[in-house]
Amino acid sequence: MALDDKLTLRSMFPGFTDQALQDLDPALRERVARELEERARRLAGAASGDPAGAFSDLLGLAAGGPSGFGAISWPEIAADFDDSIIPAQIQAAAELYFVYQHERMGVFRVVDLLRRLFHEGRMKVHRGPGARGLYLLDKWQPLRYEPRDRLAAYMRVFNYGRAPRPPGAIVNVNFHFQLVALMTALAQYFRDLTISEVIKGSPALDQRPFGTLAVVQRLGTDLRYALDRASYGNVMALAMEASVYLKQILEILDAPDIKKSFDARTKWDVVEAVLNQRMGGARELSQRAKMAEAGRAVLLWVSGSAFDTNQTPADFQATAQTAAAQAEAWIAAYRMTDEGRRFPGVTESLRWAVGMPARDARMVPI
């Protein structure tokens, strides 16, 4: 079929859909509407004709000679920009974010100090699993990437830290703004959903600005695209190597003889004791641990989400509910950190993220 057929189909199908849905039960209306929409999309694609011959038809080089525009095939071009990402790179960035938060907690610095104390004989361990782990730590060091490589990766992928920007590399300068915007959008969506379920019919619900699926999908798509652009190169290998190393040093900190030497019950007590006694004090351990867990979970959800604009709210809620709970936990922890103390709240932050004026944002209580 040619252009005339396609235009006719597109002009007639909305009226046909309205008539078909008019007498249906409300419970079936949404499902049937989606099926009709999908059917219209397939028919429009079939009506586009043969794209291989469209160019020659347009130039009048076909067997029948020149023809009018209405008889020429119209190509159906797929909109696939948002899907042109590599999920493995986003997953590597999620693991790197988990490693970064442990870097901020001081875990790597604590283990380096314990290794020096062990070699200098200033630590009362000698033959236990922790002592053996500290002895082998030099062999367990990352094979390729040193601390400065981790710092450079944090700068490149998250724009975190003070490491110099790698010359010529893409730096994800807006990561933190996009991450906070996505967390607030997820939180606001499910908060609005809870309110709507509790007070059905309230006139205040008509003024809800953020209880829409499109906002979450757009912010998630933008975050995913930016991470994909900045996480090429050695990020996947570095994230894997740093994760293996982090697991090993956490096992060392959890060794019985290490915990006994600091009168600690858990590995986190060891971290806190070392930071307080020898490194100027422990800060934000609980908050950073939760941000690491929740941030990684949300970024992994972003890497595997389709963000289909035709997705129904029910389907989205089923897949995003766990991520929304993690987003709430991340926000609660983030607000207790130094940089998060300026966080104005979910509502005002999201109004800023979607471009609403500050004057309007202040009208809504936080």
Fold and architecture overview:
The protein is 65% helix and 0% strand. With 366 residues, it is mainly α. Helix 1 (3-22) packs antiparallel against helix 2 and helix 4 packs across helix 7 (147-158). The N and C termini lie far apart (56 Å). Mean pLDDT is 82; it is low at 203-210 and 359-366.
Uncertain residue segments: 203-210, 359-366
Give the total of beta strands: 0
What is the domain total for the residues?
A: 2
- Report the C-alpha radius of gyration, rounded: 28 Å
Percent in strands: under 5%
Principal-axis shape equals: elongated
Category by helix and strand content: mainly alpha
Largest sheet: none
Task: Looking at this protein, list some descriptive labels.
2 domains, 366 residues, disordered C terminus, elongated, mainly alpha, single chain
Short note summarizing the structure:
The chain is mostly helical. The protein is built from 16 helices and no strands.
Topology:
Blueprint: H1 3-22, H2 26-47, H3 54-59, H4 87-105, H5 107-119, H6 129-140, H7 147-158, H8 175-198, H9 213-230, H10 235-253, H11 256-261, H12 267-278, H13 285-304, H14 313-334, H15 346-353, H16 358-361
Helix pairs in contact: 1-2, 4-7, 4-10, 4-13, 5-6, 6-10, 7-10, 8-9, 8-14, 8-15, 10-12, 13-14
